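We emphasize that the prediction below concerns an isolated chain of 198 residues; any contacts that depend on oligomerization or on bound cofactors are therefore not represented. The input was used exactly as deposited, without trimming of termini.
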Amino acid sequence: MRVLRAVAVACAALLTTIPTVQGQDNLLSRLMFDPESSAGFEGFYVGFQDGGYHNPYYNYFNNYGNGWHPSRFIAHGFAGMNYALGDNLLTGWEVQGGANYNTSGDESWDAWVLGRIGGTPNERLLVYSTAGLGVLEGVFSWKAGGGVEWLVLDNIGARVELSAAGELGPNDNTNPPSRKGLTAIEAAVGVVWHPGWM
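Result of the prediction step, given as a token string:
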């Protein structure tokens, strides 16, 4: 135990000696919760993301004459609003949607309205979860997931999201039949602009 305690103390001391860019506080203090950390993420934001869906059950991505393809690429826009609930807690909403396509020529669209809640361990990092409703490939559906956003510049962020989706309403993609439960996964990376509008 004494050895472990000594190692921990030494590591903490080392971190406090590492300078950060542009004369900021030491690295250890940057990793601590900052009472002003949510400020850079508050207000309106807008952005674009790329990625894809995977639907191994084919209940969304049917054979439209180009063969069976369980996946789609996405090209989505999004916009939303973040509200501070406290020093390190945010809530808000987001609308997102756009084109879904594959290399064989299949094309469709999706659109979502999502609620968001997240935390900001420091002024550059937002970790959040999402849940909401929308339409995927013409089918009324739910979607839930989460992501991480990092402010690369003061008002420009990069984010990564992972979400799950499933049917809620009637499905006209009758071959194969409708299937309830989690049937599609979405992964996306995006760029976010925070213009400072509250």
